[in-house]
Amino acid sequence: MRAKRLPAVFVGHEIYRQAAYGSNHPLAIPRVAPVMDLCRALGWLGPGEFQASPRASERELAWFHTGDYVDALRRATEAGVVDIETRERYRLGTMENPLFPGVFERAATSVGGSIRAAELALEGRIAYHPAGGTHHGRPDRAAGFCYFNDPVFAILALLKGGCERVLYVDLDAHHGDGVQDAFADDPRVWTISIHEQGRWPNTGALADVGAGRACNLPVPRGFKDAELGVLLDGVLLPLADRIEPQAVVLTCGADALAGDPLCSMALTNVALWSAVERLADLAPAAVVLGGGGYNPWTVTRYWTGLWGRLSGRKIPTSLPAEARAILAWLRSDLVDDEDVREAWLTTLADAPNDAPTRDEIRRLRDAALAQVDRAAWRQPALAVDLDGGAAR
Ligand SMILES: [Zn+2]
Hints:
Shape: globular
Low-confidence stretches: 382-392
Strand order of the largest sheet: 2-1-3-8-7-4-5-6
Bound molecules: zinc ion
Order of helices and strands: EHEHHHHEHEHEEHEHEHHHH
Strand content: 5-15%
Structural class: alpha/beta
Number of helices: 13
Helix content: 25-40%
C-alpha cells in the first residue's frame, strides 16, 4: 500500500488553451485548460503543486516513434498540408487525425509531460497529467485522434528509472491498444483495459491476453458504478496483488462517464475518482493521465475533481460563482443545449447511481480470472539470490 507520499503534482501547459483539431473534430472542445482554470478558481493549485510540462526532444520521441514519422509530423505541421503519400502512410491530415497549427508542438508537449510525470512519480509524488492519455498512437503513424503515444513514454521513463514491474490500467471507454501492443514483448509491463465492447478500434476482446501479460475487460453499454466495483475488487486488484507493481500508470479517459456523446458507458465521476485513488495506491510511484472524453462539462468536472481527490481536497457540494462561470462558458456541438444538465454547471460530484450489477459483468469477472496466465501474472522470480542460493 501507499507509503507516506510527498504532495501530488499537476503537470499542465498553456499550449492546451490554443484552438486545436479544427472546428468539426470531437476534440475541438476545451478540456485541459478549463480543468486548470477550475482548479485555480477553487484554490487547488497552491505553490509547488503545478509544473509546466516540458516539450519532448526529438531524442526522447525516438524512444518509441520512428524518425521518419516524427519528421513527417513536424514537416506537415510546418507546411499545414500533407501530400497523399504522407496522409496514407502516417494517417495524418485525415478527418480522424487532422492537421492544425501547433499539432507537433502540442503532441510533443504531452509526451514531455508524461515523461516529467513519471520522473515526479519516481520521487514519490502522485503525478497528475490530464493532457496525457493518447493511448492509440503507433510507433509509425497516428491513430484515433492520437499523434504520439504519451502513456508509452510514461512507462518507458519508469523503466529507465529502474522499475522492473509496471502496471498500466486503462479506464478510457476505448481499448488501450497502442499501449498494450507497445509492451507485448516486455516482461516488465502488464496492462489491463476496461472498455466498452463494440467500440473502435474493436480490439481488446476478453480472449486477447497479448503475450500473457494483458487483461482485457470489454463491458456492455450502460456500465455503471457497482459493476466497476465488481471488476475492480474481483479482477484488477487481485491481479495487481500478484505482481506487486513498483509503478502504476493510469489512463482516465472521461468518455467512460454517463453523458459522453460518443460512448455509452454510464459511470459517475465519484466512482472513477475512488477507483483511480485505489489504483494509484497500489504502487510507490503513480502517474495519472487523462484520455478521451467528448462532453466538455463531464470532462472538466471529472478531471478537476480527480485532482481535488488526489491532492487531498474536500469536494464542495456546490461550486462558487467563479467556478460556475468556467462551466457556463463551455460549448459543444455534440451535446444539445437541452441535454446540458443543471448539475454540470453548478457541482463537481455526480449524484450516485445505484443500479444493480448485471449477471454478464459477474460472468466477465469469472471468465477473466479463469483465463489468467498464472505464470505471466506473477513477480518474476529472481534466478539466483544474493547469496548465490536457490531461486525463490
Ligand atoms: Zn476513449
